[in-house]
Amino acid sequence: MTAKPDIEALVDLGARVAGSDAERRVARHLEGRLGELGREAVVEPVSVFPAWHVTLALHAVVAIVGSVLAIEQPILGTAIAALALASLAGDATGAFHLLRRFTGRRASQNVVSSEDGGKDGTLVLVAHYDAARTGFVFGRRLPSPPLAPLFWSIVAVVACSALRIPGFEGKVLTALQFVPTVVLIVHVPLLVDVTLSDPVPGANDNASGVATALRLAERHGDSLEHFDLWLLFTGAQESFALGMREFLRGRRRELPRTGTVFVNLDELGSGEVRFSRREGLLFTSRSHPQLRKLCHELGEDDPDAGAAPLVLRSASDGAAAHGRGYPAITITARPVPHHHLPSDTVENLDEDALERSFAFCSELVERLDQEIGPDLRQ
């Protein structure tokens, strides 16, 4: 079994953006594909607000309004800008949604294939199957998504507006407030451009991860000594890991934190193998130390694989699992020249990179079972 046929099948099913008919077709396709491997699968519907680009644009507009009002009405202006800041922080961390709720709810779905072998632990291989939209911000050395500059610009607006409440005025304060306001204004057309742009084919991001997970299930399913092997294909990941966050809700008893490990597979078809050292969209946190140690050892044992640590500043499924207290790590490949671009096609995949990624992930699964699995019984 190779990865390419599964990648081609996913790409051929259409533009699988979150909440679309194509995304639903892919979910049903994966359900059938898992059945071919002799695994039971369940398609779990989730309700999400997937328009992250509209969400960020709305935050920028609200903060701009607050900045303008603060000149004449500093208390009101500061309150409006602070609302945008709090809402954006909740959105980026997944803690809560405020302004995002005005952007439209859509139906997405996760595809879950579990094993119930009564083993001490559960190893969950995760790969998102939805695809992103392209846009001017991608592939031009700009932050993508442009969340950090947006967030810190709103922080600056709130600070400058708050200084006006006790009566501070002057050209210096006005200039300080003007700069982040201009940055926010520039963000609006960039985000609107993403909204109006076409979806990418998504061969590397992330049909490559899905295909690799299927290969790993074929090789290691029902064969691990200490772990039941689960597969989780998430929808709406490109909208800040919404599918993963919904999957984790209410599963603490089913998936206890002490015996569950998440390995996230994302963009494995271009470049050298990388594993997350830190992850997070706005604020990063360290990936699980034992998982990092295993990945380091694998890289040292096989120098040809080129495996090395990487800081991932994105809303990955691995970061979402780690944020809920689970041991988690993301395996990816860098560099990725086709990230969120129309050139992310099957023809531009690196088959050697796919094989390197699969070999690394397969060895990681075996090491997890051999080295971490026995400790679960203690």
Question: How would you describe the overall organization of this protein?
Answer:
This protein has helices spanning 4-12, 21-36, 52-72, 74-93, 147-164, 171-196, 203-220, 242-248, 289-301, 317-323, 351-372, and strands at 42-48, 106-113, 121-128, 227-234, 260-265, 272-279, 285-286, 308-312, 328-334. Helix 1 (4-12) packs across helix 7 (203-220), helix 3 packs antiparallel against helix 4 (74-93) and helix 7 crosses helix 11 (351-372). It starts with a helix and ends in a 6-residue tail after the last helix. The protein has 378 residues and is of the alpha/beta class. 47% of the residues lie in helices and 16% in strands. Strands 1, 2, 3, 4, 5, 6, 7, 8 and 9 form a 9-stranded mixed β-sheet that branches. The protein has 11 helices and 9 strands. It has 2 domains: 4-49 and 107-134 and 201-377, Aminopeptidase (3-Layer(aba) Sandwich), CATH 3.40.630.10; 53-102 and 140-196, no CATH class.
Structural class: alpha/beta
Estimate what percentage of residues fall within beta strands.
Answer: 15-25%
Query: Residue ranges: pLDDT <50 for 5 or more in a row?
Result: none
What's the average pLDDT? 92
Question: Which fold does the CATH topology of the largest domain refer to?
Answer: Aminopeptidase
What is the CATH architecture term of the largest domain? 3-Layer(aba) Sandwich
Which series of helices and strands comes N to C?
A: HHEHHEEHHHEHEEEHEHEH
- How many individual β-strands? 9
State the helical fraction. Answer: 40-55%
CATH C-level of the largest domain: Alpha Beta
Overall geometry: elongated
- Oligomeric state of this protein: single chain
Major sheet: 9 strands, mixed
Radius of gyration: 22 Å
How many domains would you count in the coordinates?
2
